[in-house]
């Protein structure tokens, strides 16, 4: 039974709505659920997944659609009541009176006249207008919205630069400003390291490793994923770099991104060489030798960028190593796993929620086991023809747009990811399933607990076929995160998951297991 309920003129941001939909799916008798604003794009998505009816089609872009597919009328009515309850809880948790939620930027500023930053999460077609209003009011902006044109992004960033303001985004999912975590970010204390990044999970991994090693950050400034593309030209990365260099509390700067456009790299290198502070650059998959020739400190993993930053701040010599544990202990862990694999089990399948973590793992594994197929692959020959079907050694980012159309992001809801985990276990050639577990604000409140049923089912699928699956993972997070880092770690280890300290180390361990220890000799 499909039912659509319309709440007129009731705006909620996409993260809130994804969390509500995720919770609804736990209700007995519910087949599917969605909570989305009634934009044309969202209605098209709900139509494609079979959740839209005539009531939903009549909704306007400022209306909220709650779409439910339940086994009967009682289930549907119960789910609707639960949805309304969850929406009110979200407003209450945000400290907002449900009856007097601000309907505009002006109304919000009347309530918070001292505010100097606005977080905007509206449908893409309205983002330029709302962000422009905020910038013209002298407010820094974090623009969570996606589906914003490159042309609008450039206009907004140029306006921000004229007014000496930050314009983080569009599609900026992570930032930590003056100790306040915004979007998908972790609980990280204050400290001497500044981060500027065009990557959300890249910022999360670096800041979390820094925090777990006892240091903190001044700021983590997100730029949006397109900032370092040729058209945008690194406008906000340049400002973030200059601002951090001029910040008296920042002693060292870390830049993180996927490879920028060549002209952008050259421009940034010129700025870095003129900085007063030491700068560590992690452009994953970029030309490290080019930067090193210019005297710039360049790293090829998020882990190395974070650990090098910690060493520099503490005045210690950075010693690069593949594992936190000794090579001997790493070998024992690998042997305990590969001794249980069959001769035909020779493939790694990575099922990721973080795009940058997937990319980092792909680059590490490429050096150790050869070709890696992926929806993120740069080479056409390694791109998956069908993203729903893996081949050979393969890593997929299930947070990419092609997987999240009409469904919550896997950091929030692991349903689709769990299905893929079990699917991979059915392939007789698979020996390892490789996962990232991302904690922090906005993420699933117990992501390890949500993954365990799929891990157990996948293990049973393999066992029934006379095989063994080795699960390898890392946790991106800190002890202060709401999910409780140590409790997440305990759950995964008790389920038999080989848990490594960082994503890069997990990739190296996966390589060691699948090659039966051969890569440990390198």
Describe this structure in words.
The structure is a single chain. By secondary structure, the chain is α/β, with parallel strands linked by helices. It has three domains: 2-98, 2-Layer Sandwich (Alpha-Beta Plaits); 105-314, Succinyl-CoA synthetase domains (Rossmann fold, 3-Layer(aba) Sandwich), CATH 3.40.50; 327-521, 3-Layer(aba) Sandwich (Rossmann fold), CATH 3.40.50. The chain has 19 helices and 19 strands. A six-stranded parallel β-sheet has the order 15-16-14-17-18-19, sandwiched between helices. It is globular.
Strand order of the largest sheet: 15-16-14-17-18-19
**CATH C-level category of the largest domain:** Alpha Beta
Class by SSE composition: alpha/beta
CATH superfamily of the largest domain: Succinyl-CoA synthetase domains
The fraction of residues assigned to DSSP E strands is 15-25%
Radius of gyration equals: 23 Å
- Helix proportion of residues, in percent? 40-55%
Low-confidence stretches: 94-99
How many structural domains?
Answer: 3
CATH-defined topology of the largest domain: Rossmann fold
Features:
about 525 residues; 5-stranded parallel β-sheet; Rossmann fold; alpha/beta; Alpha-Beta Plaits; 6-stranded parallel β-sheet; single chain
What is the structure about, briefly put?
By secondary structure, the chain is α/β, with parallel strands linked by helices.
Fold topology:
Blueprint (H helix, E strand, L loop, with lengths): L1 E6 L6 H11 L5 E8 L2 H9 L5 H4 L6 E7 L2 H21 L11 H7 L5 E4 L3 H13 L3 E4 L6 H13 L4 E2 L5 E4 L2 E4 L6 E8 L2 H13 L4 E6 L12 H11 L6 E6 L4 H12 L4 E6 L4 H6 L3 E2 L3 H13 L12 H12 L8 E6 L2 H15 L3 E2 L19 E4 L3 H4 L10 H11 L4 E9 L8 H18 L5 E7 L8 H10 L3 E3 L2 H12 L8
Parallel strand pairs: 4-5, 5-6, 9-10, 9-11, 11-12, 12-13, 14-16, 14-17, 15-16, 17-18, 18-19
Antiparallel strand pairs: 1-3, 2-3, 7-8
Helix pairs in contact: 1-4, 6-7, 8-12, 13-19, 14-19, 16-17, 17-18
